[in-house]
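Loading example: each entry is read as two labelled lines plus one structure line.
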Amino acid sequence: MGFLAYVLKRLALLGLVLLGVSLVVFLILRGMPGVDPLAAYIPPGLPVSPEALARLRQDLHLDEPLLVQYLYYVSDLLRGDWGHSRTAAQPVLDALLGRLPATIELAVCAVVLSVGIGVPAGILAAVRRDRAADIAVRIVSITGVSFPVFWLGIILQLVFFYALGQLGLPNLPSRGRVGDEVALLHPLGPVTGLYVVDSLVRGNLTFFVSAVRHLVLPAFTLSLIGLAVVVRIMRASMLEVLRQDYILLARSKGLPARIIIVRHALRNAITPVLTTAGTTLGILLGGAVVVETVFSWPGMGRLAAQGILNNDSVLVVGFTLFVATMMVLVNLVVDILYAVVDPRVRY
Amino acid sequence: MNLPRLRMAVQVVLVALAVVVAVGVAGAAPDTLIWDIAAGPQYVDPVMGTAAQANVTVLQNVYERLVWYDGASTQPIPWLASGWEVKDGGRRYVFKLRKGIKFHDGSELDATAVKFSFDRAVLIDDPTGIGSFFPTGTAAPGILKGAWEFSKAFGAGKDYSQAAVDKYMAAGAVKVVDPQTVEFNLAQPYGAFITDLATFMGSIVPSSYVAKHWSKPTDPAKGYVTGVTAGQRDDWMLYNASGTGPYILDKFDKATANVVLKANPNYWGGPAGKIKPKLQTVIVRATLDQATRLLNLKAGAVDIADISTAAIFDVIDKKKWLDDGKIEPVVPGVSVPGPFPWLTLYFAKMNLKIKNPDGSAAAFQPFQDARVRKAFASALDTADIRRNVFNGFAQPIAWGLTPAQFGYDPGVKASYAFNPDQARKLLLEAGKDAGFGPDKPKDLVVIYNAAAPWQGYIATQVSANINKLNVGLKLDVKALSFSEYVNSWRSQLTGFSIHSTFSLTADPNSWLSAFGTSAGFWARTNSYNNARADELYTRQFQALDPKQRAKLISELMQVVNDDVLWVWIGAATAYGQPTFNPNVLRSSVKGFYYNPTYQGFYFPALWKE
């Protein structure tokens, strides 16, 4: 099968997957027995007349059979009408897209940190197998991933924001994407919505430094979700490769260890890490709810958390659909990237 | 791996990190106030209803009303108006406006702006906002003339066509007499009209500013007047504002839900000409996480933070508060305002007509017997709930009004008190008629919203207390998802449920209607119908004399209490909204005073030392 045919096949499958996801989220929104779908649209304490409720039922086609309702729902989704969020006071799709850059910036940084720390650590563990460095790397990475991120986030705030500040030392911010004063005195016009990139493009150095400072704690906290997996996969993959005959050959040729590891072993061992990093990125794009909430990071995750607190199921369901879409897309991109990284992969 | 290289890479990262950290966090300037709020504003259009403290706070600092409150007083005084006259037995109000007041966009305050503001509120008719409660009114004939007939959300309106808009405009609800005089024509006398004008729903917006950012509807089926499309939200005004108030909305970031307010350098100074904002910048930051807000407050990085009542003992001394009722901060440099009567209520309701899911009446209707209702009310230890669920931030009440409201009468008596023996006696008697008893046990479900654990505590308590009595009623507690919970009580599928509610104004009208009238929001989900209560409600609605109105309200409250439909659990007393998040201040913030009608801070009163 050619590359193009493969991509087309995957795109067709993607459509089916999304149809399945839309059916599930639709049933959560409308099809649960005993659940009044109107509750999602009107706050419970609102004195709306029974006539107005009846009109809303009609507008939402709630008296039609479930299948007909689903067809209306899918047709609305395809037209970009994902419903209106009470929480964001905006259409759901606009609200999610508006917060997407913040989430992308955080998730990408977290994955870069996961890979940037995890790959060297995994290599080190493999090369020094069963020695002190290996054991230390494994303990640290497993411990890191075992801590709940909300707890770790708070501890990092406590140390790097509160304790340093109390000691009169420079500290890191506890919340937000950029300092309040910086946002007021050095505002940044929109380019991509990625603050670190935009501030560089605009040459706004004050904004850049503030944005990076605000990124450190949440990105590090979030990176721990993927870090342990990257370390373990890198280590296992590296050990596997290091056992191959061509490595033995390279060694017998008298090549230095650095050349063997970086040029011969790493390129062959990195493919599984790429898959992991891709999957992690997909998870983080949708799963940064807790970290975004703890650090008041204005991304999609925080919006979803607000939606959950407000019982805004239209938003929560829209978020679920959006995250599923992104997850599928990221997986597709990763599969395509295989061929780029590993020339042996053919479609 | 080349270890020296790895080491070097680690060193580079650490140095870069150190440089980034070394920039440090600058504290807020003395004329800047930062508030970490639990939930940021969603929108700032005064025609949209809201109970969120953030929304209301922005509205009451940016916009002003014809009448408002002087300091801590809850008695409205002329504000943008210099005075008013009541005519035609309370059906007509004529206001004179002050001269020389300007909106933030530079346009002049005049009678046209006032007329535009109220017509706009009626015509937008936003169904998701309690803002539509006033000036439309929930029951015929409504408040402003023609508004109830127009409203789809509350009235009999069927469409938003041009004909419907023209019909409302022709009714003459608000008329410009001359540039400084405006006249309101009401559909009936309304005793709380002035109080309602003092809420954010009475905010005055400039017509030219709104019209500048408005587009004529392209759909010919949509009626409009210049600046307002009927039945449609104004996307610009959701996030932008131009008022006459002491603060200008400088920035509203939708994604972060943070707002920045700047002092209005041209503020007219209020009725006495003395109001001059000292804080030049106010930053309200939505910080969802409780632990982050607490850390920021402790570190002095913010001046005000919302601290949930569940975590309040991180900030105040638990023993002194629960045992002696004294608020004593345990965090240096922090003060907790209060406790104050607030406008949130906790209550349980009993349904006279339990229904099956198909809408038919259920076979077992225990709450039709007043003795059963009284027994359930007597089985609830409300004092224990106020102490252990709300950590003492709730006070006992004998009706669905809080002491912060007009008409609150401590003389009105509840028809029950916590008394399990009395409950048992009543249930044994009632069971003979209602078809249950120790030898004939019946099942009953008590529901609560699973996302609200405080309701779970109350549901468990009432069930345990009733089950213990061994009277043949077996109560089962059921935690429901929010949607199921709402459906269950709204469709009357359940007999006993637990709730909280809030009022936007210190006027009791909305709660008197909700709990006391057959068309009331809560009462109709109980099938409550008492002609005497309905009559008293209408009479107090139309009463213009406050004394006479207060008397009618007391009488109404007693009539409803005698029917024992509601168990009044308590009224919130923490300063903050939602009430589970009291506002805690750094001691450096000065000038705070309590006014229950504010529902948020009035920043010109505050300064920092």
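Chain B has a mean pLDDT of 90.
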